[in-house]
Amino acid sequence: MSGTLTSPQLTAADRCDRCGAGARVRATLPAGGELLFCGHHAKEHTDRLREQGAIISSEADI
Ligand SMILES: [Zn+2]
């Protein structure tokens, strides 16, 4: 799963928008915004975000 052209890799500086833990998942919103989630919050939120048309990309196993 490497070499994607669309999203830069998440780094240790990227933090979950909900709890501040290290981010593992990036959600790109249809409106153009971006949300970052840790593994825990990704499980809670990504299904709903996908339904809204967001693009979910993960950098690690969840
Ligand atoms: Zn979190």
What descriptors fit this protein?
binds zinc ion, 1 helix, 62 residues
H and E order: EEHE
| Total number of strands | 3
Biggest sheet strand line-up: 2-1-3
Number of domains: 1
Q: Catalogue the unreliable spans.
A: none
Q: How much helix is in the residues?
A: 10-25%
Distance between the termini: 14 Å
Which shape, going by the Cα principal axes? Answer: globular
The structural class is alpha+beta
Please describe the biggest sheet, giving its number of strands, its sense, and whether it closes into a barrel: 3 strands, antiparallel
Instruction: Please count the helical segments.
Output: 1
What small ligands are held by the chains? Answer: zinc ion
Which band does the percent of strand residues land in? 15-25%
**Any idea what the radius of gyration is?**
11 Å
Q: Name the quaternary structure.
A: single chain
- Average pLDDT works out at 87
